[in-house]
Q: What sequence folds into this?
């Protein structure tokens, strides 16, 4: 066990391992590319839907069920299926990662919108704000902390799951995990896994910091 | 992509076996998770300083990718079902601990104090007053954890204990989509059935909530029907 940790440490710290087109630095960038693009695409799809459901109050049933459906959908199965259907391209990776992130963002956006105090909305209506103004100036700012929680959760899941890119022959940190498994090289597998975990935690902390920055002026309870 | 329908009846036995295998990994994981999460959550609820630590630790477990988790466990537990179960258990903790703490937080102070005033010991109060009142929130966590576990078992197919996930590897290696479709559909069905079962269990365990009007009912157009009928009769 100690021997393994020592090997792992030397694997992670060797300069040769970090450089080159198959080095750790490149793999991290690839991993980030999949994760960031997938999360952004998911946010572009999910945020308007979540806001619409929350604002109109219609389709809440859909939002709740979509989220449990999304949780039940096995990502490995999805990526394999899209891969077999569409052939060798990076699309299966993005399709499965987006499918993973969309339900999380929709449910949290909806939950944030639903948690806005109806009296506040009434007051906004009372001072003459129109529907769209209420959405942008009242509901959205109040719901933002929960929406950001959803984006954070989705990001962590996407970063953690982007290892599947390597499963369908692409890059990213999953490369080390799958190659290591194929070569029975435990050090490489563990190194890849540890890097993914660190990347997920860093992404979570970064978004947490961003959230705090966004809500600097707010009382603690609203965060 | 074409699906060969003839594959399904030919492989009914295999699908049954893999479904059983799937459950043999997912169910112990949730039960074990519950066994660990309940005491941890009670502790986090009672001892304030521990709260942030326990919730933070379970959050960090969640950020470790599921595949990485299984792999990290390999040197400790080897290529066994235990690895798959322990990995999934760690995953369920974040939901179970958070929901149990939230459920206990939401127990009305008056109920707790009434129990105390009647001379009930703290442990008995916990078991007979607090946990039953927190049950709906805890069960919501159990439902999420169960569905999540059932979906994640397939990741363990890399270490040979993927249950229905074995069908994904099989289809992928042979470039044959039919088993993959079967695996995805069966996983979804299993999650759906498990969720429905848990809803039933919750309904059976919380008889005091059955009569309660749901908030949805109040906004339904039929909620006002009796009053409307009364007005109509009077007129």
A:
């Amino acid at each position: 066990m100690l021997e393994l940790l020592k090997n792992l440490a030397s694997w992670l710290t060797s300069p040769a391992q970090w450089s080159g087109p198959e080095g750790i630095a490149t793999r991290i960038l690839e991993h980030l590319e999949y994760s960031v693009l997938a999360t952004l695409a998911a946010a572009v799809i999910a945020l308007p839907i979540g806001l619409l459901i929350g604002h109109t109050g219609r389709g809440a049933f859909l939002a709740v069920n979509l989220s449990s459906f999304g949780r039940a959908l096995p990502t490995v199965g999805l990526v394999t299926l899209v891969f077999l259907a569409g052939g060798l391209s990076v699309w299966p990776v993005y399709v499965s990662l987006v499918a993973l992130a969309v339900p999380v963002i929709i449910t949290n956006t909806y939950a944030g919108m639903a948690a806005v105090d109806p009296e506040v909305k009434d007051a906004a209506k009372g001072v003459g704000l129109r529907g769209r103004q209420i959405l942008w100036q009242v509901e959205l700012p109040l719901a933002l902390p929960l929406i950001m929680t959803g984006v954070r959760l989705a990001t962590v899941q996407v970063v953690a799951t982007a290892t599947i890119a390597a499963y369908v022959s692409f890059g990213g940190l999953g490369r080390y995990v799958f190659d290591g498994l194929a070569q029975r090289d435990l050090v490489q597998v563990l190194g890849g896994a540890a890097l993914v975990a660190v990347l997920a935690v860093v992404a979570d902390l970064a978004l947490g910091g961003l959230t705090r920055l966004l809500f600097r002026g707010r009382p603690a309870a609203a965060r | 992509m074409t699906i060969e329908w003839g594959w399904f009846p030919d492989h009914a036995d295999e699908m049954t076996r893999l479904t059983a295998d799937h459950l043999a990994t997912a169910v112990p994981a949730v039960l074990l998770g519950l066994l660990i999460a309940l005491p941890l959550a009670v502790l986090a609820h009672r001892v304030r300083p521990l709260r942030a630590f326990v919730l933070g630790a379970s959050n960090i477990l969640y950020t470790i990718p599921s595949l990485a988790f299984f792999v990290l466990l390999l040197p400790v537990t080897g290529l066994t079902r235990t690895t798959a179960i322990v990995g999934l258990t760690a995953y369920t903790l974040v939901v179970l601990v958070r929901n149990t703490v939230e459920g206990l937080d939401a127990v009305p102070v008056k109920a707790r104090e009434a129990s105390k005033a009647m001379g009930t010991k703290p442990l008995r109060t916990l078991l007979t007053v607090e946990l039953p009142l927190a049950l709906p929130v805890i069960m919501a966590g159990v439902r999420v954890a169960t569905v999540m576990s059932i979906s994640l078992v397939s990741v363990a197919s890399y270490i040979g204990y993927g249950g229905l996930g074995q069908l994904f590897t099989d289809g992928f290696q042979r470039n044959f989509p039919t088993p993959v479709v079967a695996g995805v559909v069966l996983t979804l069905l299993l999650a759906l059935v498990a969720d429905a079962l848990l809803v039933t269990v919750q309904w059976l365990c919380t008889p005091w909530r059955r009569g309660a009007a749901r908030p949805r009912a109040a906004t339904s157009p039929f909620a006002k029907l009796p009053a409307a009928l009364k007005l109509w009769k009077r007129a």
Notes: DSSP finds eleven helices and no strands in chain B. The radius of gyration of chain B is 23 Å.
